[in-house]
UniProtKB/TrEMBL annotation:
Protein name: Glucosaminyl (N-acetyl) transferase 3, mucin type
Organism of provenance: Astatotilapia calliptera (Eastern happy)
Pathway(s) this gene product operates in, as recorded in its UniProt entry: Protein modification; protein glycosylation
Coiled-coil positions: none
Family named by the database record: Belongs to the glycosyltransferase 14 family.
Keywords associated with the record: Glycoprotein, Glycosyltransferase, Membrane, Signal-anchor, Transferase, Transmembrane, Transmembrane helix
Length: 430
């Protein structure tokens, strides 16, 4: 008998207890590893599937995203078919009715209503969305970037049709973290008010929440190329820096900041006066309207006296959106900025803010002039409006967003991109 007489029952009990906890441990760890698989299953209903009502479901998005020529050609043919165009249009009134029951709307449109990961929950983003038409495009964009921990300010152009305003207002009313800007302006192409629209949203976003880490501005024809988690990870890797185009201004553009411009008949026109030098002799840099900046940059824009002076100075220039953010990005003391020295210049291709394809930069790989492959959609004012054939290349870029997409002209590009992103967002949880 190897059990000592005294207390063998106790030892047996201990032995059973050890066995029991071992069994519990195995069970728990099985539950833990099994959790990832269950996780996907659990949120399976958030995947955009082909049973969804859309007429564009005849397209094979995986083939399109792999760049298969036949499938892309077929998608292109479909998008120019009148019947298809008609069947995919959604009138503004649809959204007014559909959002009467918000929870039904969010469920049917498969909005993500809980943070998908702790990492995303701990890194909320602030978005400014400046739109003037195409409610359908706006809603698909919002759905693609929506997460409950983020915050969204929407500026609808003052001159937009009432139906656009009402429909977008109805959509935003369904979400506690999506709101209409408190002050609306009439946005004039290349005019100051384009900047003012973003400034008004910046102030509201800064005022409404103290927790967001980065600010991103969008227009209605942008679409993400990354999931929210990928965006968060890209921003964290900036380590507090900002990412936007900011480089030397070309000679051709200099007249924009050397002459006084005013709105005449709804257009920006020079009035024959030259401008004073910039306040504090700040060097003017060239960029674009789209930026990815940290909270401190926004605080500077709202509070820094030098920037207030620069803003006043910029109000009668041509297209101030294309130099103001770029100039602020090179001002000493602005959080996340870089020095004005040209060694810190950043092009739109190196910044992650926005992928825009300009017609004159398109060409074949290896050509010294070309920056990107030819546009597979069509051009509007020399900018590529992406087609399904652009997707494979787009998804390989490091940019967080691309411009332009148009739900009326090429819905397949949006349809396949949103499907790809949603699937990725749900599978990257594993
Ligand atoms: C879609 O395309 C992929 C890639 O070519 C192919 O593997 C798949 O079978 C296609 N699906 C359908 C439903 O045709
Ligand atoms: C309005 O929306 C409800 C569901 O929210 C739907 O059942 C109804 O058919 C819609 N009416 C119109 C006119 O679209
Ligand atoms: C928010 O904005 C309002 C109006 O501009 C201002 O009066 C208020 O002080 C701001 N609140 C904060 C917390 O900044």
């Amino acid at each position: 008998m190897w059990f000592p007489k005294r207390g063998w029952r106790l030892q047996l009990l201990q032995f059973i207890a050890v066995l029991g906890s071992l069994w519990m441990f195995i069970l728990l760890s099985q539950l833990k590893t099994g959790r990832s698989a269950a996780y996907i299953l659990k949120y399976q209903w958030l995947v955009y599937t082909d049973e969804d009502e859309s007429p564009e479901k005849v397209c094979n998005c995986s083939a399109i995203l792999q760049g298969e020529k036949d499938e892309i050609q077929q998608a292109k043919l479909l998008t120019i078919t009148k019947d298809f165009q008609k069947s995919t249009q959604i009138p503004d009134e649809y959204y007014i009715n559909a959002t009467k029951d918000c929870s039904e709307f969010k469920m049917r449109r498969k909005y993500i209503t809980f943070p998908l990961s702790k990492e995303e929950e701990d890194f909320p983003l602030a978005y400014s969305m400046v739109v003037h038409h195409k409610v359908h495009s706006f809603e698909r964009l919002l759905r693609a970037i929506y997460a409950p921990q983020n915050i969204y300010c929407v500026h609808v152009d003052k001159k937009a049709p009432a139906s656009v305003f009402i429909a977008i207002n109805a959509i935003t009313s369904c979400f506690p973290n999506v709101f209409m800007v408190s002050k609306t302006v009439d946005v004039v192409y290349a005019g100051w008010t384009r900047v003012q629209a973003d400034l008004n949203c910046m102030a509201d976003l800064y005022n409404t929440s103290t927790t967001w880490k980065y600010f991103i501005n969008l227009c209605g024809q942008d679409f993400p190329l990354k999931t929210n988690l990928e965006i968060v990870q890209a921003l964290r890797s900036l380590k507090g820096g900002n990412s936007l185009e900011s480089e030397e201004m070309s000679q051709g553009k200099k007249k924009r900041v050397m002459n006084v411009y005013q709105v005449v008949d709804g257009k920006m026109q020079p009035i024959g006066k030259t401008k004073d030098p910039t306040p504090f002799n700040l060097p003017i840099l060239s960029g674009n309207a789209y930026i990815v900046v940290n909270r401190g940059y926004i605080r500077s824009v709202l509070e820094d006296k030098r920037i207030q002076a620069l803003i006043e100075w910029a109000k009668d220039t041509y297209s101030p959106d294309e130099f103001l953010w770029a100039t602020i990005q090179r001002m000493p003391g602005v959080p996340g900025s870089t020095w004005p020295n040209s060694k810190f210049d950043m092009t739109d291709m190196n910044a992650i803010a926005r992928m825009v394809k300009w017609q004159w930069h398109e060409g074949s790989e290896g050509s010294l002039q070309a920056v990107y492959p030819e546009c597979k959609g069509h051009h509007v004012r020399s900018i590529c409006v992406y087609g399904a054939g652009d997707l494979q290349w787009l998804t390989e870029q490091h940019h967080l967003f691309a411009n332009k997409f148009d739900a009326d002209r090429d819905l397949i590009a949006i349809y396949c991109l949103e499907k790809y992103l949603r699937y990725k967002a749900l599978t990257e949880l594993v």
